Amino acid sequence: MRGKLRKAKLRTGKFSLYIDYYPPVWNPHTLRYTRREFLKLYLYPKPTTDLERQENALAKEIAGKIYIKRMKSLMLDAHGIFNKDVLEGDFYQFYERFVWKKRKDELETAVHHSALQHLKSWRPEQLKFKFVDELFLEGFKHYLKSATFLKSEINRLKPNSQAVYYDKVASVIHQAFIERYLPEDYTLRVSRISNVASEAEKLDIDDFALLQATPCPDDLVYRSSVFAYLSGFRFSAVEAFLWEHLHYSQILDCWYVNIIDPKTSRPVKYFICQEAVDVLGERKGDSDPVFPNLTYYRVRQGLRIWFAKAGLTNKARFHNWRRRYASNLTFNDVDAFVIKSMLNHKHISTTQIYIDVDEAKRAEAANRITLPKK
To answer: Element (H or E) spanning 22, and its range?
Structure first.
């Protein structure tokens, strides 16, 4: 790894100082490899006054120090030695670049944005990497447990919201460690906030029949909900579902959907039943969305009205269709590892959160208990 301090002539006549790297180095600001790092330091080509000569001398001195610092950093990195200078960097800038990259890859960033806002509410001043450690993570957990929603000063965050925001921040800290902005992965030293299963929010086995008997004011919301109930799709997958993703296997005699899961960015093949296909309606062009004009806001509002009419206000969440799908598979004695694959979960522990034993199964099990015969 080599680098040389050079200057380039500008249209103004001044010279711009820059470092010329060979081979190219990774620039964490532009998120790409580069040969040149312009230092935003300039020289007068022919200084005529003492002030101009002093400015030239100062610019050269600063450029020289930056050059030495960069070469030191590259040398340490080449030998696998942690460079302590990066600890003076801004963690918030790193987080914002992390979110920007996800948005560029067309991944969902809304939750990351909210997590960052909570982090800034707790620590509004500039946050350097040197302050990010296990004590920092414990402090953020303590803040979340007493924090309110961003748009409310009264309603406190629910335990599952606390868990989600903590996990998002922890994932960025883990990435900072991977990119050598931190000397160790502090997330391994701090336990995460546990998710809490809420019985009041789950759809029971009879709830869907009640909803079917209650007219839904928005047909698109109704059809997307029925499809999610029959397929287990997340909302992000339903929203991204194009007609070209839908296929039929003659060998397996079954429909399936080949799609990139927007949440995990992993390709997945979802097998779906004929009833799920029937609810989609007439097939359009391959590049057309199956559920056009479907937005999260529209679904949320539509579900609130529909569920309120059915007396199920506290269960009006699109994700409950996916939970109900998992419970239906369990009710039909489908193996947990098969359910894991059908939900595209990475770990079986995640699937176990979704699996719910219905009252009918519990009642059947209870009726099997008898006194031993004499």
So the answer is: strand 15-27
Closest alpha carbon to 42 in 93, 91, 8? 8
Beta strands in 147-300 (DSSP E): 246-249, 254-260, 267-272
Strand partners, 36: 20
Residue type, 152: S
Question: How many Cβ atoms are within 10 Å of 219's Cβ, its own excluded?
Answer: 11
| 169/260 Cα distance (integer angstroms) | 24
Length of the chain equals: 374
Sign of the alpha-carbon dihedral angle for 201, 204, 208, 211 = negative
What integer pLDDT is reported at residue 137 of this predicted model? 95
User: 255 by DSSP, 3-state: which?
Assistant: strand
218: amino acid identity, one letter: D
Structure tokens that stand for 56 in this block: 């030239």
pLDDT mean across residues, the chain: 86
167: which 2 tokens? 């996990």
- Strands 246-249 and 254-260 turn out to be antiparallel
Closest alpha carbon to 134 in 90, 188, 182: 188
pTM for this prediction: 0.53
Alpha helices in 123-204 (DSSP H): 134-144, 159-178
**Residue predicted with more confidence, 334 or 118:** 118
Mean pLDDT of 299-326: 90
Cα angle vertex 165, ends 315, 260, to 5°? 75
Structure token pair of residue 183: 């000397």
108-152 confidence digits (pLDDT tens): 788 899 999 999 999 998 899 999 999 999 999 999 999 998 877
Contact between 159 and 193 (Cβ < 8 Å) = yes
CA-based R_g, the chain, Å: 28
Token pair belonging to 297: 């806001």
Structure tokens at 141: 């957990």
